[in-house]
Amino acid sequence: MYKLTKYLKPFIGLILVSIVFLFGQAMADLALPDYMSKIVNTGIQNGGIESAVPEAIRESQMGKTLIFMSEEDRNEVLDSYTLIDKSSTDFQKYVKKYPTLENEPVYVLKKKADIDKLNTKMGKALIAVSMMEKVMEEGTGGQNMMGEQPNDMRSAFEAMGDSAIVQYAANVIKAEYEALGMNVEKVQSGFIINIGIRMLLISLFSALCVVFVGLFAARVGAGLARNLRRDVFTKVESFSNAEMDKFSTSSLITRTTNDINHVQMLVMMMIRMVFYSLIMAIGGVIKAIGKSQSMTWVIVVGVIAILGLILTVLVSALPKFKLIQKLVDIVNSFQHSLSKIVFLVAIS
Fold it and tell me: Which CATH entry fits the domain spanning 213-347: 1.20.1560.10, 1.10.3720.10, 2.60.120.1200, 1.10.10.60?
């Protein structure tokens, strides 16, 4: 096997380019499940609302929300929004999108706002306002509302993760969008279409990578086979009569055709599948651990089980492969002898 590696040196460039395309294909394939989960979790469950930070909120609702924030958080939130009213230069632009602006000023999120920083703060405050409004609608006394309820909310917030906060806040934000006169269904369909287009582009990129990898792998395999056959033919031509007698014609045919074909297929499969599988395995493990570190032991057990299965298959398959090679020699020898007999019969 080591001797064969020298035949790969002229194709190192193509192999490296193939690995780059394999990396791109693997990253695209690993990204698609995340986009699918976004369609289900964000697009369908959350109505297309990606974060707990509304793109716009009425001034009255913002006032209620700020009550449940610290002074520092209030300043950060207010710095991230622009108050639009009838005196604003962009009033006509925003009133088409938020019809309620005709009756009440609206806070509009700035394009440069840090969503990640605001996500938890705005989400918790919006949920708290929603809880308080429900308590008031149910007729609970103000003392109880302002007494035990905040403690209960703090405990609930501490148990929530960021994704849970976004999920709970999504319903509140949808209600706010409806109050602003926005088309909530359009927001949802727009998000799903946007993610769908991204998935389509990623799939096309992955398919393009597959085509290029297949092309480069075929070129490497064909070039390797060509060089091997040339060198084998040159070597056989240099044999003396004594050396030639040591090899049967069938054996030489097998070496120059069947064996080299297997080497060619091995190289092509190594580039197209083995390298890709390694990249996918490493990328998949990294993504899985990033999602949940508690799943590390499951991944380790799974990897060990797969490696054990692969080694078992190799150990059991290699002897059979060698036996097949010997049988191919016998078949070729029989065909060669049969051809001689047919030739002698034909000329006699």
Answer: 1.20.1560.10
Q: Read off φ and ψ for residue 84, nearest 5 degrees.
A: -110, 125
The answer, yes or no, to whether residue 147 has pLDDT greater than 50, is no
Q: Which amino acid is at 103?
A: N
On the 0-12 / 13-18 / 19+ scale of CB atoms within 10 A, 100 is middle
More confident residue, 342 or 104: 104
**φ and ψ of 246, to 5 deg:** -75, -20
Write out the DSSP string of 33-66: HHHHHHIIIIIIISTT--SSS-SEEEHHHHHHHH
CA-based nearest residue to 7, from 332, 267, 293, 305? 267
Question: Which H helix or E strand runs over 86?
Answer: none
Contact (CB, 8 A) for 162 and 119: yes
Predicted TM-score (pTM) of the model is: 0.74
